Every structure is written in C-alpha cells, then in structure tokens.
Amino acid sequence: MSKKNKIKKRKLNEDGFVYSTKNDFNFENKTVEETSNKEQNLTVHIEKKNRAGKTVTIIRGFTGNQLELKILEKDIKSQCSTGGTSKNKEIIIQGNNRNKILGILESKGFNVKKVGS
Q: What pLDDT band is residue 104 in, cutting at 50, 70 and 90?
C-alpha cells in the first residue's frame, strides 16, 4: 500500500476529535457506512443558468462521505482535463463533458443516468 493510500485511509477513520476536559469522557470509534458504487444512482446534468453563460456538468446523487467525493472529483477532473469543484454532495465540472463523465462513472461501477437533453 502506498503512502498516499495510507493517508487517505487514516483521514477517513478520524472524527476530528482532539481533546476533552471531561474526566469521564469515552471516545467511541464510529464506523463509516460504505456503500458500493453499484448501489449509488448518480445523475449527470448540463447547466448554464446563473453561470454567466458558461456550461457546466453537474453530478448529483453521490452518497459517500466528503473524502470519497473529493477523490472522485479529482479523478474526473484529471481524466477530463478540466477544472471543477464539489459542493453540497454535487460535483461540478467545467464545460460540457457529460458523455466522457458517463463513461468514467460507468467504468467505476456506478449506476449513471443522463438527465436533460
């Protein structure tokens, strides 16, 4: 396992707890519920509204945690050679890359549906 993967797994298991002043505080490790890619139904949209006429591709319906969302966003951005961001459980990719993104997500095992024209 590479160093990069070890760091990702460690960050995934941390709750951000640093210190408590309570003497009787019990720290409980919360388990992270993982959903497989086949269980997730993603939709891919094209949108121009409120973006000064610029077209963006939006992926909605992701149910993983924030770290998994960022990893997926980074992978899609690098394969599409474009910029983007993730906000409110959505991945926003610059440009009309819907067909390329559909192929990427299907190759990763997601259930993907194209929404709109």
A: very high
Residue 7 has pLDDT above 50, yes or no: no
Judged by DSSP in three states, 105 sits in helix
| Residue 106: Cβ within 10 Å count | 13
The identity of residue 43, as a single letter, is T
List all residues 6 or more positions away from 117 whose beta carbon is below 8 Å from its beta carbon. Answer: 46
58 versus 11: the higher-pLDDT residue is 58
Given a contact cutoff of 8 angstroms between Cβ atoms, the answer to whether 91 and 72 are in contact is yes
Domain ranges in the chain?
Answer: 33-114
Fold of domain 33-114: Translation Initiation Factor Eif1 (3.30.780)
CA 16/CA 30 separation, integer angstroms: 12
End-to-end CA distance of the chain: 43
What are 49-81's pLDDT values in tens digits? 888 889 999 999 998 888 889 999 999 999 999
